[in-house]
Amino acid sequence: MIVTGAVNSVAQVSKTFFVSKAGQMISALTEEEARSVTHLTLTGKINAIDFRHLRDDFSSLEVLDISNAEIKMYMGKDGTYPDKFYVYP
To answer: Tens digits of per-residue pLDDT, 1-10?
Structure first.
């Protein structure tokens, strides 16, 4: 019997951050850290700016825990719809 399979060579990188001000989550990490995180737990306050960074900058992210984060309203052009003024309730 021949058994073949791929071995996942990417190490799990877990980070936990308290975000004191919504929209500032990305300032706690370098670009390399953001790209390498696989498991992220966020507490504190987050908004559409943080969700844009999660979508665009965290290319290795597999697990996101925001169960203890407070999602705040955001109005502006820096959310998930770039360059368009949008209200995120």
So the answer is: 454 444 455 5
Q: Which residues contact 10 (CB under 8 A, 6 or more apart)?
A: 38, 60
Q: Where are the domains of the chain?
A: 14-72
pLDDT score of 6: 46
Which uninterrupted H or E stretch holds 10? none
Q: What is the mean pLDDT of the chain?
A: 90
- Contacting residues for 48 by C-beta, under 8 A, at least 6 apart: 74, 78, 79, 80, 86, 88
- Report DSSP state, residue 23: T
